[in-house]
């Protein structure tokens, strides 16, 4: 009897020890500090884990170190799919790298709540104007800047000139009725007009986002994002526009389970291989396509590839020329040595570094590096975006993550069942907003 | 020194049982507590908060998340999907498994090859299975080009009219997923049942045939009753597996289209953790745990207990 009781006692001790051990693992480490000339090592976590952007970043670090011998780097590449979990755990555990990849907007605003992100506005005021619209995208209403973009993203239609010609289309559509007419012409020629990667949900949201931009004024969208709601009537109108557009049946067969970027059967693969005529996607699309077709045919494919902006919607009260887009960038931890961290982010946005980033198939945040863009369709997109009235951040990133996810899911749901009321999207956004 | 060793020996002798327990039970207990009990308790705690995962845990709201999840039509729909998969497993997978196991249990040429072949899909990882079936089920283009092996085969044998967008139809996708799940997991059931069949003494079948029992009577009155414990274990594993379906669904459809293949776990990942609603996601995780635990407990208590009381001897009486 006694031995059993003892066993219980020791088991309890063992449990307490196990809990103590697991809690001890959550402890925190020391912090960095430094003046401008002290030797510092900046730890940089990035999702550029392979390919041209990885190489570009390596060169940028090497060049910066050559000019500032006191600053060294420890670069940690992280798989993009692991990124969100990894950085969240780091922020939660107060073990944040000095520099880390940033998606911006609502996503960044949620991270700011951890108290681990440095406001960079005081360090970058002298030069940040150079990157123009990209700065406005990430600056919050109190003028704080918790991350610096290094590139520019813009969404528009990538299309096959050869397939447009085959269907008898002579110029790209500038209004929605023109786009609808082109869709019918392409279908009549047996070509799938628009490829969409509905499995991933976010490509569906591009359509709804664009209808919102066309139906709502810039300030209405900004207010809606601030209030985590979509109550303004123009959001419902955008849903109605989407419903009429869906009624033209513009997508490839079985689009509901088509991925956007993986494999030859993805929406990018379908356009790249000439099985679909166009796709509403971001500036990264050509580089995705390049990976999906044989290297030998890519040069010919690029001459066939064109770009046009999302058409204007006649009678809509919003802006007919505004562009949907975003940016990637970096944030500094509050513990990062300053001004070294902010100074390095400035260097990434300087023309020589920006040209290296353009070399990895991205559009530059700094317009001074535009000359490095070579692909015709990319250049078309960049020039259009530079002169656009404004760039609206993708709505799923502009809203907090839970609201953005609810928006993507609701739009994807609507794509699957377009007969339901378009107000389901508004309802989903509002109820997720009420929860956040 | 000798006295010390002597007293140590006496001490060890008296407390032998205790040392045995510490050495044998300590490490697994530690792991169990650290990686099972503590996470469950922490999840239950997080479930009480409206917390995004950043900053200290805050926004206490009692059982609100639990109520929200149980009232959410999408969560209920996901739960129904799990139940449908569980029922289909019972009604379709189990009879097929028993049938194939009976066939493979007979002496015939290439039996061991067939056993390996049937078991092979189970060895393949779920991720590989998912990618494989994505290719097999690929839809054809607008021009009739392309298409996966399934559609091509169906057209070749004159079943072209049956071809559907298997993974793109919200009403069909769950059943497509069930076919893939069956393909992957049926081998495990068959091997389990084969092992059970091997344990049935030959003498019983001999005695039955001497008594003039038909093959069907022998199966009905000897094989199936004696296979009972194995079948009950299979049902247990299959039900728990059905409640936890995730990998295949996540890779093949991400729960879509229109949540047509959403399961409880994929719902939890999507609307909990990917949406950075850690409080809500934790609440869903705890609900999932309670459902699985309740099923496991009740099943052990009422179905499996018979097997520990010697079902074999009783069934033959």
Helix content of chain A: 40-55%
Number of extended strands of chain A: 12
Question: Which regions of chain A have little confidence, pLDDT < 50, spanning 5+ residues?
Answer: 1-35
- The H-level CATH homologous superfamily of the largest domain in chain A, spelled out, is Periplasmic binding protein-like II
The CATH superfamily name of chain B is: MetI-like
Discrete helix count of chain A: 20
- β-strand number of chain B: 0
Q: Number of DSSP helices of chain B? A: 14
- What would the CATH topology of chain B be? MetI-like fold
- How are helices and strands ordered from N to C of chain B? HHHHHHHHHHHHHH
Any idea of the CATH class of the largest domain in chain A? Alpha Beta
Helix content of chain B: over 70%
What is the global morphology of chain B? flat
Count of separate structural domains of chain A = 2
Strand content of chain B: under 5%
CATH class of chain B: Mainly Alpha
The greatest inter-chain interface is formed by: A-B, 53 and 47 residues
Describe the structure.
The complex is a heterodimer of chains A (about 425) and B (about 325). Chain A is α/β, with parallel strands linked by helices and about 425 residues long. Chain A has two domains: about 40-150 and about 325-350, Periplasmic binding protein-like II (D-Maltodextrin-Binding Protein, domain 2), CATH 3.40.190; about 155-325 and about 390-435, Periplasmic binding protein-like II (D-Maltodextrin-Binding Protein, domain 2, 3-Layer(aba) Sandwich). Chain A has helices at about 1-25, 50-65, 80-90, 105-110, 120-125, 135-140, 160-165, 175-190, 200-215, 220-225, 235-245, 265-270, 285-290, 295-305, 340-350, 350-360, 375-385, 395-400, 400-415, 425-435, and strands at about 40-45, 70-75, 100, 150, 150-160, 190-195, 275-280, 305-310, 325, 330, 365, 390-395. In chain A, the strands form two sheets. In chain A, strands 5, 6, 7, 8, 9, 11 and 12 form a seven-stranded mixed sheet that branches. A five-stranded mixed sheet of chain A has the order 2-1-3-10-4. In chain A, α2 links the parallel β1 (about 40-45) and β2 (about 70-75). In chain A, α9 crosses α11. The longest helix of chain A has 23 residues, at about 1-25. The radius of gyration of chain A is 24 Å and the shape is globular. Chain A starts with a helix and ends with a helix. Residues about 1-35 of chain A have low confidence and may be disordered. With about 325 residues, chain B is mainly alpha-helical. Chain B has 14 helices and no strands. Chain B has helices at about 1-15, 15-45, 65-70, 75-105, 110-125, 125-135, 150-155, 175-200, 200-210, 215-245, 245-250, 265-275, 280-310, 310-315. The model of chain B has no long low-confidence stretch (mean pLDDT about 90). At the A-B interface, α1, α3 and α19 of A face α2 of B.
